[in-house]
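Let us practice reading a record.
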Amino acid sequence: MTQNPSGSLRAVVLGGGLAGTLAAAALAPYVAEVLVIERDSALPETATPRPRLPQAAHAHMLWSGGADAIEELLPGTTATWLEAGAHRIPIPNGMVSYSAAGWFRRWTETHYLIGASRDLIDWGVRTGLKAHPNVRVRAGVKIGGLVGDGSRVTGVRVLDEGREESVVDADLVVDATGRDSKAPEWLAEIGGPVVAETVVDAGVRYASRRYRAPEGAESNWPVIHIQADPREGRPGQVVSIISIEDGQWHVSLSGTRGGEPSADEQLFEEFARGVRHPLAADFLARAEPIGEVVVFGRTANRQRQFEKAAMPEGFVVLGDAATSLNPVYGHGMSAAALGALALRDTAAKIPVTAPKFAARAQKAIARPAAAAWLLAVGQDRFYPGAVGKAPNLADKLAARYVQRLNRAAIGNFLVVRALTDVMTMKKPAAILGSPDVLVAAARGLRRPLLDGPPLTEREQSVLDREPLRAEVNKTS
């Protein structure tokens, strides 16, 4: 293990969000100092919102692949979340999911996800970072650009709250500033490369609201997830209910271009009832809304291929700054966590100042992000009005194969296990082409389709109660 070889190395991480915090944790054992530069005037000491994280108001799914990566980087974080009220939800038995092929069976647990607000997840990660005494945060600072040239980055220009500019020297700079990253412009200013960029935008808009869970449904409650079907030739509309802390449900609606949800509170549950199945709306009619509807529309998939550019030494890009994803698939946090783990593993093998360290780290970071990218754009390209490269023959064949897998998964545990491995980012998508999965896909359904949602007696008992509000547009 390469651990602080000279005792004087400094890494500077741009951005104090989830990706930046995990990058700091990844590098802390291998440098003398990690300095996190954050634009906000301060990072919260509690699980409260950050002003520059509008997507935090929407439901988040931290899949087991990402949660396990965070636990490896910051041991004890999972316990911190759970002690603060988060839920460990088993998958697939803890999910009632209506796919394009029908209702998934609730097989025995193979994976899990963390049910919690984004504020709580970020707070738990920040709490874990305190175990590294060589990490410090400098808040209220704006990044002015990179220092160096096309061959090596040696630091960053910063502006404090008084607008005074100074230079922070660094042996390694990690950009984790999110979707608003100016890395391409910064590189251009110092003679760096042009970075190829691909955008696929289905025009997704989110509307989210919190509810107080009905009595008896505050914990050990499944995720309710009604998916869209890209084959229908109409806007894709989705609804998800996820249990979070404080006995609450976090509910998110989403719709692609032409089928977006509204910010109108009166239309929230009407939208939920208009998706492919009204189950989620039936549950919401028996829960109490406790917050306003919040909307968010910056959901385009954007991939910047830094790993394929002739990047200067001493500069790495991580998280949404490199690959930002449509949040409906819940892979952004997990991709960032796995990218940070790849950064740590690279630093464990060679010093951060070694030739080609940045290139090796960037390629390793790109692998999990590329897998999440394929999962997202493989769906989003097919919705009406999607902006970006149209699906080619290979895309269409791949989509048909995934559709066949989803149908086989209704009645085949082997296929469910493989799809869940990929969805939770525990294994690469290549496993879907393994011989046993190919054979299972060819055989198709091994059990009949379910004729309705697979609810337990306890879950059905909630639906048996009188609704608190009229169930708008309910069909008999």
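A brief commentary: Confidence is low (pLDDT under 50) at residues 1-6.
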